[in-house]
Amino acid sequence: MAQTSTTDLTAPEVPPIAIGNGGEWHQSATADQPTLTTNQGLPIADNQNSLRANPKGPTLLEDFILREKITHFDHERIPERIVHARGTGAHGFFELTHSLANYTIAKVLTEVGVQTPLFTRISTVAGGSGSADTPRDVRGFAVKFYTKEGNWDLVGNNIPVFFIQDAIKFPDLIHAVKMEPDRGFPQAATAHDTFWDFISLTPEAMHMVMWIMSDRTLPRSLRMIEGFGVHSFRLINANGESTFVKFHWRPKLGLQSMLWDEAVKIAGADADFHRRDLFEAISAGDFPEWDFAVQLFTQAQADTFPFDHLDATKLIPEELVPLQVIGRMMLNRWPDNFFAETEQVAFCPSHVVPGIDFSNDPLLQGRLFSYLDTQLSRLGSANFHQIPVNAPQCPFANHQRDGHMQMAQPTGRVAYEPNTLAADSPHEQPALGFHSAEVGETGAKGRIRAESFADHYSQARQFYLSQSAYEQAHLASALVFELSKVEHPHIRVAMVGHLRHINENLAIRVASGLGIKELPPAPLVAMAVQDLELSPALQLIGKMKATLEGRAVAILIADGSDAASIVAVKKAVTAAGAKVKMVAAKIGNAILADGSVLPVDSQLAGTPSVLFDAVAVILSEEAATLLGKEAAAIDFVRDAFGHLKAIAVDKGGAALLKLAGTQQDAGVIAIDILGSFVTAAKTRQWGREAGVRGLA
Ligand code: HDE
Questions:
Q1: What is the set of active-site residues?
Q2: How far apart are the first and last CA of the chain?
Q3: Which CATH number does 69-386 carry?
Q4: Structure pTM?
C-alpha cells in the first residue's frame, strides 16, 4: 500500500475551475503559468477534448494534437534492463582522502580532497522493473564517476563474488533464474526448479550460493549494504608498472539486514521500501555515505594465494590483504526525473580512465563487451553517451558522427583523423591518453579453463564456517525454504550432495529440513577441498553497528495515550538518530489523556511493525482492550516480537502484548527505563530467536 513521502503537503493556490460544455472541467491558466504546447510549440487551447465530428460523433483523424500526444505516449517505454531492471539511483560525489599516486596516474585516485561528481544506481538482479524491492537477491552497486579524464564506471554488486567463472555461462544463469519461460513466474525469486537445476549442475556457483542464502541478500536499507567491484582490476603508475586492485564500498551506517519473514511482509506492506528509504533520507538531508577502500597486491603476492584471484567466484579475505580506505562517497541529490536519469543511465565496465585497466578475469572480459552492446538495444542509439546522465562532465570530442538521435551539431568539413585541414580538430594524445598495461601473453589458444579455477568449495566452506551461529541458522533455513519450493526431488538431493563438500553439518541440517532421510553422496571434485583460515570479516551480524542512525521507530498510540511517555520516547530515540512515526488505528489526530492533540502519521492497518526497527506501545488500558480485538494491532506487536525488535511498553502496551500472546523478555522494556530501550533498539534481540522460530 502506498505511503506518502516527506514532501511539502500544503495545498497550492489553484486557479478556479470552470465547467464547460458537457460538464467537463477546465482549469484556467494564470498569466504567469507557462502555456501548454504541442512538441512543435503550438499553444493548446483545449487539453480535455479531442476533435470530434459532432458532440456525439466519431473522433477525426485530423486531430493532430490528439495523435501527437497519444503517439508519444505509445512510445514512452524503453526496454528494461535484461538484468538489474529494478533499481534506484542518486547523485553525489566521491572525495579522495589518500592518494594512490604510487600505483596509478588516474587523477580521481591521486588528487586528495577533490570532489568528483558521480551517479550511483543500486538494483536487484532478477526481478522486472516493477517488482518489489525486497526479494532475496543480490544488489547491483553501480557508480559512474564523472572524472576530469572521462567517465569511470565501477559496476559492482553487494556481494564480492559471482556465480560463474566465464562470461559464456551468463545467459544460461540468467535464463535459469528469471521467471520460467512456459509459465511466466516466479517473479524476482530464486526459489524455483530452473534456478536450482542450473546451480546443482554448476559447482563453481557454490561459494556464491552461500552468500545469496545468507542475510546479505535481505538488506534493511540500501544505505546499509557493502559494495564490491568483484573482479581484480589493474592500476598503472607513471612508470607503466601495474598493481592489482579490488575495490570496496563500506557503508557508514554499518551493515544491517532484514529477517526473511520481514522481507516477505515488507514486499506486501511497501513494495518500494528501499527506494522510499533512500528518497526520504536524501530529502531529509540525511545523506548516505560509504567509505571507499582498496586491496592492493602484486602478481608475486597473488602467486602465493590458495586460489586464483582472476576467478570471480573467489574473494581475497581482508585478513590476507587488508583494506585501505582511500576516500568516501556521499549521495546528496535525488534525480529530478527517474526516467531521464535512473532509467537511462548506462553503466559499462569498459568505461575506465588512464591509470585503471582490466585483469584477465574471463567474466570481466565478457562484461567489457556486453554492457556497451546492451545499451544499443535498450537506449536505441549509439549516441546514448549524449544523454545528460551519461555524458562525461569533461570535454570530449572525436570524429564519430551521425546516428539515431544525434544531438551534437559539429561544424566544418573534417570528420576524420589524422588530417591537415582542421588544425583545431581532436587528435590522439600519446602522453595523456589511455594505455593498456603491458602484459606478456603466451600459451595456446583454446576453450580451456585454468587448473587454478578448479577449487569450487573451499571458500564456500570458509564463508559458512566464518558466520556466527545465528547467521548459519539463517543460511541453512534459507536453503531449506528455497529447495522446498523445488518440485523435482533429484535437484534437492543434488544440492545436498554439494553441501556435503562445504560442511557436513550444513548438509545434515538442510537434508533434515527437506525430509531427506539419507545423505546423498557428494559429487566428485576436481580438487581436494581446503580448510582455509576463517575470516570473521565475512560476517554480517559482526559488522552491524549498534546505532539508531538511519533507523526508524514506531510509537503505537490511541486516544487516551499518555502524552509525557510519548514525548519522552520520541525525544530519546530522536536524540539517538532515529526517525519516529506515530501510528494509530485512525489517521488524523489522537486526543491524548491530558487533552492535548497529537497528529498521527500513519494508519495502523497500513503500517505494520515490519517497517520499523523498534516499536513503543503507549496505550490507555481501555485502548489496549479495544486494540486487542484488532488483528492489525495484534500482528503489530506479535511481529515486532517475532522479528526480534526492542519493544517499549507502558501498562496499556503491556496489556496489548499479553492479549497478543507475546512473551516478556529482556527486549520488552518498561517505558520508564528508556535508556535500556534505546540501547536494545540499536540491535536485534538475537537471543529471542530460538524461542520464536524453528530454524534449520
Ligand atoms: Fe552485469 N549486466 N553482467 N554483472 N550488471 C548488466 O547491463 C553481464 C555481472 C551489474 O544499474 C546489463 O546495462 C554479463 C557481474 C550491475 O544499470 C548487461 C555478465 C556483476 C548491473 C549485463 C555480468 C554485474 C548490470 C543489463 C557476465 C558484478 C546494473 C543492463 C559476464 C561485478 C547496472 C545493462 C545498472 C547490468 C551483463 C555479470 C553487475 C546485460 C554478460 C559479475 C550492477 O549488459
A1: 84, 157
A2: 32
A3: 2.40.180.10
A4: 0.97
